[in-house]
Amino acid sequence: MTNPIKHLFSLLNRGDALSVRVKKHILISFLLRGVSILSGFILVPLTLNYIGVEQYGIWLTLSSIIAWFGYFDIGMGNGLKNKLAAALAVNDIKNAKTYVSTTYAGMILIFGTLMAAFLSVNPFLNWASILNTTEVGSFELLMVVQIVGLFFFIQFVLNLMGTILAADNRPAITNSILPASNILSLLIIYILTLTTDGSLLKISVVYAGTTPVLYVFVMIFFFTGQYKYLRPSIKHVNFRYFKELINLGVKFLILQLSVMVIFTTDNLIITRILGPEHVTPYNIAYKFFNLINIAFTIILKPTWAAYTNAYVREDFGWIKGVMRKMLLIYAGFMMLAIFMVLISNHFYLFWVGDKVSIDLSLSGLMALSV
Length: 370
Prior knowledge:
single chain; mainly alpha; globular
């Protein structure tokens, strides 16, 4: 009988160097994302028990609203991913460093301006009215938005480290940030449940602060070590490259804005029409069926830079072969979505208990959306 471990390694090492690298990063990403999903699923009932259904809905809505500002990078992160991948494919270190330095400078300029504007305007906004709630005091909501907003703006710049790793065909390292962040959040929130009363402010600081802190350590590690040659510097900033990054980035921005409308306005619409307590069942159903999107993205993500690399080398046969395999995988995920609808009610009961009621029609529509 064939040893399954040996068979797996045989499959991983089959094909050309680019294919082998992509397959290994897909496997590692699946393992890391599995840890992230498991810890993320544990976080939901833990957080619900700590702050309740309505405050959890407020947090979900608030984080969605602040995440909108991430689309104001004019697609520069995606522009960098393609430009840097192309430069690294031909070992053009000078241009690679210029692209990295210019993108960091542009992002700091954009998000520094947005952050200053946000912190200036925020005290004048009535968040209790915006979020349609009376459960949390206006001052606490103001502090939550101020602190969370600050962390989010900082994270948008720090996320560029993940873009650099992805451009170098190393997305598995980026994918390790989320599970590490979830596990850290899980430990802190568990301690909070044992030692403090429920607090939206504390939960918000934990959720919003762990990822930026971890990215700081990742940046220090890589920019003082393996990617020292790419470390951004003021003397390598060239705003003539800014146009190149934006021209490509704007095309991605159109896609990003579409995604923003589809995926990040839901929580606000539900909050305004039905109330924040209705965001929770919607989001629980979304988290369950979004597992399909997560799995497919894990497979797709390593191919982004690999497609760029193959395109630069004019290896179109490799590109076509991978795309055919992707379509077959996609068909398999469609069948999985149907199965998930059939077991959804049993899964919700196991996951969050009877605190939240989710209609089967919501699960069906969520599967269709996915």
